[in-house]
Design goal:
It is built from nine helices and eight strands. It has helices at 30-36, 113-129, 146-164, 186-200, 204-221, 224-234, 240-250, 254-268, 275-290, and strands spanning 23-29, 41-46, 50-55, 59-64, 74-77, 91-92, 94-95, 100-102.
Length: 292
């Protein structure tokens, strides 16, 4: 269930780069902008609506149209057909000149225990009616699957760490790193959601402890692309659909959030195969800890 896509291939691309034109970016996240501004990138993954470019230093940017949504590694290209068809191994030149920089709004928990409990209960009901396709997202509504049961000891270890605090994270939690399907495995997305949730409630210290423990292990236990997404989450940045769910969960307006959950979950389920729901499961673990 674990994989590594680390590569030692050279980034001296002068003999292979023959661009058919420079791709223009309309909007991108900060990590994507920094990577794209460094020069041409190598196509390392291609999907129906997007592709990933790899740059020196294991930096990545995901190019796509508006349907990709906003995120720290996402870069929205200009024009409906601007991206075109590309293959793995091809080098692309991308311009970020004049592009809009996207950053998520700071997340701050304002809901009291009563409001948070009501919104969490509403989320659980909505998630039960709109079940997660795969991954660890089913844990939000108490569902079970072979993957969830496999991950449960690690998730319980994280819960125990949240309860007692401190700098020592149980070794069992290591099983989440690189666990499950997807370009960004479900366990990684769960950990990313944990860091986003911890920062949302103002516990940056715990988020920093989690990242210090996670970063050196992610370098060998999961894919480089997933590692880049985890690094962004450690800085408080994830896909806009996850930020919208976390904001609804921890904000003070309980009644409005209850009405919005079906729509928010539908948006979240468009993020990867199951990445959005996996990330929300991590944030929900933080919410449940806050209610203890």
């Amino acid at each position: 269930m674990r994989r590594s896509t680390r590569s030692s291939r050279s980034f001296d691309c002068a003999d292979r780069f023959s661009p058919s034109g420079v791709i223009a970016v309309a909007e991108c996240g900060r990590p994507a902008r920094d990577a794209l501004a460094s020069g041409p990138g190598e196509v390392c993954a291609v999907f129906r609506r997007s592709l990933y470019l790899r740059f020196a230093g294991e930096r990545y940017a995901c190019l796509g149209d508006a349907s990709l949504g906003r995120g720290p590694l996402n870069a929205r290209v200009s024009g409906r057909h601007a991206l075109g068809r590309h293959e793995v191994g091809q080098w692309l030149a991308v311009s970020v000149a004049g592009s809009k920089l996207w950053r998520p709004r700071p997340l701050r928990a304002r809901a009291g225990r009563r409001a948070l409990g009501a919104k969490l209960a509403a989320l659980v009901r909505a998630a039960a009616k709109q079940p997660a396709r795969d991954g660890l997202g089913g844990a939000i509504a108490g569902a079970s699957s072979p993957l969830i049961e496999h991950a449960r000891p690690a998730m319980d270890a994280i819960d125990a760490w949240l309860l007692r605090g401190g700098a020592s994270i149980p070794r069992r939690a290591r099983a989440l790193i690189g666990l499950g399907p997807g370009l960004t495995p479900s366990g990684d997305d769960y950990l990313a959601g944990l860091m986003i949730g911890l920062r949302a409630i103002g516990n940056r210290a715990a988020a920093a402890v989690l990242w210090r423990w996670l970063a050196p292990q992610a370098a060998t236990l999961t894919s480089a692309i997933s590692g880049a997404h985890l690094a962004a989450a450690a800085r408080g940045e994830a896909h806009e659909a996850l930020h919208a769910c976390v904001a609804a969960l921890f904000a003070s307006d309980a009644a409005r959030a209850r009405l919005r959950w079906p729509c928010l979950l539908s948006r979240l389920d468009a993020v990867g195969h199951c990445s959005g729901r996996d990330g929300l499961a991590g944030a929900v673990a933080v919410a449940r800890h806050r209610l203890r």
